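Homework help thread (please don't just give me the answer)

Our assignment gives two proteins as sequence + structure token strings and asks us to describe the second one. The first is just a warm-up. Here they are:
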Amino acid sequence: MLGKLLKYMSVLMVSAVVAVGAAQADPIEVTSPVLRTTIGDSRVTSAYVVLRNKGAAQDRLLGVQTDIAKMAGIHSMTQKDGVMSMAPVEGGLELAPGAKVVLAPMGLHIMLMGLAEPVVSGQKVPMILIFEKAGEMPVTFTAAPLAQIRKAMKKATAGD
């Protein structure tokens, strides 16, 4: 009985090591995390980031958590017949192996609603990005005005 138990525990330990190794082999790279400063008494804002799946397996950004807003979600903006519309991204944001996904103004973004207080330039805001396979990833976003964010995103995506 003791021999079977030790064998079972050995298999579990090897499985755990393999699982950790697989998670480390399929990292999601997060760069350029920025958060738009609020205007006036606005209680909504958006955050932007560049995500790159450097692994061999598909992953998916499922959600975002933060203490500064009552609700946070992944949204997209589209233009049809000259009219802009925004909607939640249903089912999460797909990250194919080797893919780079840019969340930037006028496109995909993280929408933050129900802010407790205004967001000011230079403010550091911790958030947790929740991935289907990579799990929870803490990221600190730095607040900036929209014009500065557009320049930063253009620089971050140059050469693509």
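The one we have to describe:
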Amino acid sequence: MALTPFEIRDHLDGDRARPEYERAHRRIHAAFYMDPGTREVIDWSARADQEAGLVLRGFTEAAALPHAAGAQLPVATIGCFPSSLWVGARAARTWMVTAVSVAPTHRRRGLLRSMLGPELAEAQRRGTRSRR
């Protein structure tokens, strides 16, 4: 099946988590063997992530899992947000990377590389520098 890229910038529908945010939230928590929490916890996370400016990206695949019933489920995710990091006495702008996951069924296909490259380019575009 074909993979479809996704990007989520708007996490809320009113004060509830949007369905696509909830699916990504559940994928991320499954990757780290964590309970995604109740609907209220997911709504709270969506509000916090929205306020932080978190951008969730990744890939979905229709019916990637037997119980999916044709839904577009995330099989890989990466989350990034603007922040700052104190270096000595001053704050340096950063583009933080979090929530990186690839479903076991989709590993070794280059998904992580294809997600991380654009995030590094975004960091550079925003003026964040990396050292090699």
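TA reply:
I won't write it for you, but here's a hint about the kind of observation we're looking for: The chain has a mean pLDDT of 88.
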